Amino acid sequence: MPKQTIEAMVEGGKASAGPPLGPALGPAGVNVADVVAKINEKTKDMAGMKVPVKVIVNEDKSFDIEVGTPPVSALILKELGLQKGSGEPGRKRAGDLTMEQARKIARIKFGSDSEANVRQVIGSARSMGISFEKGEVTEEELKSHEEEKKEPEEAKEESETTEQSNDNKETTSG
Known about the structure:
By secondary structure, this protein is of the alpha+beta class. It folds into 2 domains: 4-67, CATH 3.30.1550.10; 72-160, CATH 1.10.10.250. 49% of the residues lie in helices and 16% in strands. It has 6 helices and 5 strands, in the order βααββαβααβα. It has a 3-stranded antiparallel β-sheet with strand order 1-2-3. A two-stranded parallel sheet has the order 4-5. The longest helix is centred in the C-terminal third of the chain and has 35 residues, at 139-173.
């Protein structure tokens, strides 16, 4: 059997034998626990971020692991200490990125803080509702961002309640 490459996105330092890795690695004939342990060792510095990983299984059942860099959006969120960007980019700000932070992210992601790479980081930040060097996010903006996080949870609870009442109506009217 020729070399086989298995690609997956795993959380840094928290890969497991479950999906997506386990089911893909099982048929390749490698020791899944060894692969998972090695991936976790290589990604422990990227805890909390999704990291692209390639497992290359050789003919003799040995394996090599290549760890990619997390997406720019994940690096931005980690740098700013945010859970997610704004639900309304361009209208509501979730955070503000400084030039120093943008250069740091560009060096991590691209290996260089050239102007083009920094502009790419800034563009990604803007698409997430994160401004560039506009100053700290105000208390009012933070409250708006916090409320935005709660709304999907409330909407989900509301739709579940509506579904339950609709189910009850169908049962009684049938």
